[in-house]
Amino acid sequence: MSTEDQELPVFTTAADMRAWVRKQKKSGRKVALVPTMGYLHEGHLSLVKAAKEKADVVVASIYVNPTQFAAHEDFDVYPRNPAEDRDKLAAAGCHAVFEPDSLYVSVPGADGESSNVVGRESGHPGSHETFVTVERLQRPLCGGSRPHFFRGVCTVVTKLFHICEPDVAVFGRKDYQQWRVICRMVRDLDFPVEVVGMPICREPDGLAMSSRNARLSPESRERALCISRGLAWAEKAVAEGAVSEPADVAAQLRGRIEEAGGTVDYVELLHAHHLSPISDLTSQPVLLAVAAHFPARDRGTTHAANGHGSKNSQSV
Amino acid sequence: MSTEDQELPVFTTAADMRAWVRKQKKSGRKVALVPTMGYLHEGHLSLVKAAKEKADVVVASIYVNPTQFAAHEDFDVYPRNPAEDRDKLAAAGCHAVFEPDSLYVSVPGADGESSNVVGRESGHPGSHETFVTVERLQRPLCGGSRPHFFRGVCTVVTKLFHICEPDVAVFGRKDYQQWRVICRMVRDLDFPVEVVGMPICREPDGLAMSSRNARLSPESRERALCISRGLAWAEKAVAEGAVSEPADVAAQLRGRIEEAGGTVDYVELLHAHHLSPISDLTSQPVLLAVAAHFPARDRGTTHAANGHGSKNSQSV
């Protein structure tokens, strides 16, 4: 259903969204897509800005994708604010919003049950069952603790690409591995889409912007600064030759985060393109990737109740 | 590289193929794709004919897809005859042919080795590594003996769809499970493609047409008729009420094929859409699917040397 009488058209079905994009393309306009899960911050809006420079019209999608959450993860408490998101997108000069209720066919079983999270196989043989997997790049870093995460990301991005048919798609490099995985998927499956990766946007004090930051307690918000500070330290220490072994960089950075009260998911130095292990810091492009958890303000009532909370991951 | 000076344009790169299709679409023409592995017979040409009725221009692809063959299977001896194929397609009124050398990025490792068959993970972290999987529908029937087959089919069809950007794609229902898997993939991933499944084409004596029939010995060619005859028997027996249990139909048909010297891969009665088990023959659409091997004329020198040979599978 389209609501084109509004200033910013908002489409909730694939058919309406595709029809709008095709009309744009027929008029010779180049189309860019900015896929998001909503709860937008300056980082997202910087992607819209970049998209406007790459194309004539910009579509932003807002969809919290169930297939990239595991059952114990924070799908239910993922922050949502669609009305404010639409205002922000309109102000940023976005041209259309795709905001579907659901993107997955879910056929209720005989008992009428239907799972919201379709990442794992469920019930009825008529339900969604097709997935796109980037087999190697999905494994390290976030793939370690979230084995189905990138399968969910690739699957929903494939669907969004097929619905919105963009010429260009813009992703943030805060989610560095996601950006690399999408680039590989686009290359391997011959998607006719140019993928653009934009730099991390940071708060004035250095924290990488993230929708999940909203779930950090005030104290955690302060403590999480150890990540950006640690990355700055590592960059300087390597440049000055104070540390030269990848393992030493990782161990020292991990120590700093744990000292600040963070629970480290990973601190790793990898080949920046292939995300494969490296033995030195000089002979190839190097990624230093960090993900850590800090207590959430709502830890008592969320799925993230196992001592972890919101996560802030950053890469240089 | 295009060879548009020929009557039938033949494209060997994704970029040239896509450019040609986009030009057609810009002129308002509807595009159909007929994906094939070449060595064309009347069955393929019936798909071209159907495609012409559904669209303004028809592209046929000829590509023996390595990712759908396992290492022990017949990739190396799969029959090929591209020159004759092109003549047949021109005569059938096809408008363009996509005939790529390779569709997969394969980066040689440090030892210079690069595998032709990229279905399994190989060497270099820069090589192809993205696959599309229809998780449930791929499992029964052919999936039992060929666990990676449909993953390879879905991956190459995704690539062909992205390169040729068809409005319509036409498949043969001889490969019934493949047709159902593709339909599900298209639905689940929101491909903007209409999938059309055409009936089996049969030789005058009833054998389903198949490129692999060329590998049957004359004796096997005769014996393989037990399949089409068995299917006709089953249809009649069920219609007349002579057999009413799915398991009885399967057991009797299996017996007929084994008696004729065939090695049965499967004889199964399943739900025709979901390929799930059924308990009776009346309450839902039923598929009777058969695959059997018969000795090949070249059995001594092929990968199919384990007592099996060319396969002829048929469904009603």
What does this structure look like?
The structure is a homodimer of 316-residue chains. Chain A has 2 domains: 10-198, 3-Layer(aba) Sandwich (Rossmann fold); 211-315, Pantoate--beta-alanine Ligase, Chain: A,domain 2. In chain A, 33% of the residues lie in helices and 18% in strands. In chain A, α6 (176-188) links the parallel β6 (168-172) and β7. The first copy, chain A, is globular and about 55 Å long. Chain A is an alpha/beta fold and 316 residues long. Chain A is built from 9 helices and 10 strands. The model of chain A is unreliable at 1-5, 110-121 and 300-313 (pLDDT under 50). The termini of chain A are far apart. Chain A has helices at 14-26, 42-54, 82-91, 142-145, 149-164, 176-188, 218-223, 225-239, 246-259; strands spanning 10-11, 31-36, 57-62, 96-98, 130-134, 168-172, 194-198, 263-271, 286-294, 310-315. In chain A, the strands form 2 sheets. Chain A has a 6-stranded parallel β-sheet, sandwiched between helices. In chain A, α8 (225-239) packs antiparallel against α9 (246-259). The A-B interface holds A 14, 18, 103-105, 121, 125-126, 128-137, 154-155, 158-159, 162-163, 165, 184-185, 187-192, 271, 273-276 and B 14, 18, 103-105, 121, 125-126, 128-137, 154-155, 158-159, 162-163, 165, 184-185, 187-192, 271, 273-276. β5 of chain A pairs antiparallel with β5 of chain B. Chains A, B: One of its GO terms (molecular function) is ATP binding. Chains A, B: It holds the Pfam family Pantoate_ligase. Chains A, B: Belongs to the pantothenate synthetase family.
